């Protein structure tokens, strides 16, 4: 079992399994609306998935433009939860086919916010690709168009995703299961 920063990480999705899903997702995306395609990766968690997926898109013959947006959730409590733009995209999305990429679809708030905002700005079509779908945690009526894996309700790390800024560099997705060598 991999040990990083003194923690045991149990792999859930291997680098190979993810690469294979990325190839399948790219082939699916190529069948959808891709005229003048603009890919928007939602930072920070999606940066590795996006980097791999856009290269898989190249392999199936697509030539997207790539943009980044940093979104942040606020109000972690139960009542007023919202999403705000920390750093916006530079491009005009009017009449563009947009593919939003995120790491995890959980409550759906982040991606619903992003999708609605892009339609308000005049995007022609907005579709969503996520590596992981934690559908049991959904709070909004929103589904992704392309999903890597249906994810159990674990807090996962790696392949871009962090816990307290750690573990983004792992080439696989895993779960922190405990301390190595009996350390606490
Ligand atoms: P939601 O769909 O608005 O609830 O937000 C999902 C976002 O929460 C994802 O883009 C991640 O940034 C973060 N997130 C949710 N679950 C996890 C997890 O298990 N590990 C790391 N980040 C997570
Ligand atoms: Mg995120």
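-> sequence recovered:
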């Amino acid at each position: 079992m991999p040990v990083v920063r003194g923690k045991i990480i149990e792999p859930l999705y291997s680098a190979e399994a993810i690469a294979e899903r990325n190839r399948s997702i790219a082939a699916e995306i190529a069948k959808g609306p891709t005229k003048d395609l603009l890919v928007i990766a939602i930072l920070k968690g999606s940066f590795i998935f996006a980097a791999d997926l856009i290269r898989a898109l190249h392999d199936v013959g697509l030539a997207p433009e790539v943009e980044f947006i940093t979104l942040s959730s606020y109000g972690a409590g139960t009542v007023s939860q919202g999403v705000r733009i920390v750093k916006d995209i530079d491009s005009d999305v009017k009449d563009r086919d947009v593919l939003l990429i995120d790491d995890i679809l959980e409550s759906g708030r982040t991606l619903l916010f992003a999708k609605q905002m892009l339609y308000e700005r005049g995007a022609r079509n907005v579709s969503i690709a996520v590596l992981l779908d934690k559908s049991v945690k959904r709070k909004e009526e929103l589904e992704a168009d392309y999903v890597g894996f249906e994810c159990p309700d674990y807090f996962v790390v790696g392949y871009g995703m962090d816990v307290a800024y750690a573990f983004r560099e792992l080439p696989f997705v895993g779960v922190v299961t405990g301390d190595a060598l009996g350390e606490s």
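The first helix runs from residue 15 to 29.
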